[in-house]
Specification:
Elements lengths: L18 H15 L5 H29 L1 H9 L1 H7 L10 E5 L4 E6 L8 H4 L9 H9 L1 H7 L9 E6 L5 E5 L11 H5 L4 H5 L9
Length: about 210
């Protein structure tokens, strides 16, 4: 049984890299040694796209759907256009489908063939999303995988797994936490993490 830390160690190991990533890392090392690039600057750029710009876009989409029923309906009918209306469109996000969690159904996104991912709304994909253990086990035993991420769902909640492709990518719209009626749209967006929009986590109300 693979443990959750098999998905994300917090850093990369060379022997876990795909060939393209290994080549990029080797090139980065050479350029750093020659003083042509600053590794800290590269790390800052990657962090921005992985943890700030992308996920913040998706979080705003989710928050808007929570406060605006018309936008939520639009998102269900035509997620690509609804998301683009907020200015979040582009490469790897041309064709989107929003899937809504409910009290009886939870959605989980995976790409079983490679790592198709909606960059325009979620930024760079996390390392574990591209890992073979996640890509295979999310389909075979999604409830166990979610539990390893700390998301334990009641047995009567069905789990639906969506396989992202080059033609269609998915965005999970989690349920709005109870007790957030007083919060502004921007504050609500702050509750939504990248993992919530993949389906491996659920947002929680602030204590």
């Amino acid at each position: 049984m693979t443990n959750s830390h098999d998905y994300d160690h917090g850093h990369d190991h060379d022997n876990d890299m795909d060939p393209m990533t290994a080549r990029v890392r080797a090139l980065e090392t050479i350029l750093s040694e020659k003083g042509l690039i600053d590794p800290a600057a590269i790390d800052a750029i990657v962090d921005t796209y992985q943890n700030k710009v992308g996920p913040r876009n998706g979080a705003r989409v989710v928050a808007r759907s929570w406060v605006d029923p018309d936008f939520a309906g639009w998102l269900k009918r035509d997620a690509t256009t609804a998301i683009a209306s907020l200015g979040y469109a582009g490469r790897q996000g041309e064709h989107m489908k929003a899937v809504f969690n409910t009290p009886v159904e939870h959605n989980l996104v995976v790409c079983t063939l490679c790592s198709c991912y909606p960059w325009s709304v979620l930024g760079l994909p996390p390392v574990w999303y591209k890992s073979p253990p996640y890509r295979s086990r999310a389909v075979i035993e999604p409830r166990g995988v979610l539990a390893e991420f700390g998301t334990v769902l009641p047995e009567d909640v069905a789990i639906r797994v969506w396989d992202s492709t080059a033609e269609l990518r998915y965005l999970v719209i989690p349920m709005r936490p109870q007790g957030t009626e007083h919060m502004s749209e921007e504050e609500l967006a702050g509750l939504v993490s990248r993992d919530c929009m993949i389906g491996t986590a659920v947002p929680e109300a602030p204590r």
